[in-house]
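Hi, here's the filled form for the chain we discussed.

Project: internal
Contact: R.S.
Residues: 124
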Amino acid sequence: MTTLQALLLIAVSAGATFATRALPFVFLSRHSAHPLILHMGRYLPAIVMVVLIIVSLSAMQLPDMSESAHRISAWQSWLESAEGAGMLVAALCVAGLHLWRRNALLSIAVGTGLYMTWLQLGGV
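And the returned structure, exactly as it came back:
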C-alpha cells in the first residue's frame, strides 16, 4: 500500500465515521420535540447502564455451590481471586458513584479504571 492509498483510506474512514455521527443530528433536528425522541433521551442512558451491568457481570463465574459444607470456603476463594473481588469492588463503586453524582460517563470511566487497576495489580 502506498502512502497515497493509506491517506485516502484514512480520509474515507474519517468521513464515514463523521457522517454516521452527524447525520442523525441533521435528520432529527426538526423532530427534537417529538415525544419518542424525548422519551429515548430520558430513558436510554439508564437502559445502556443496565445493559453494561448485565454484560459485565454475566462474564463473572460464581463459585460452585454443589456441596453445602464448602460454601463458605468457595466464596472466600472466589473473593480472593482477582476476578471475583475486582468485579465486586468495581460494581459497588460504580453503583455508589452513580447514585451520588448521577453521571454515567464518570461512573463507567471510574468502574473500568478500578477493575483494570485491580487486575493489573494482581488482585491486591
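Let me know if anything looks off before we file it.
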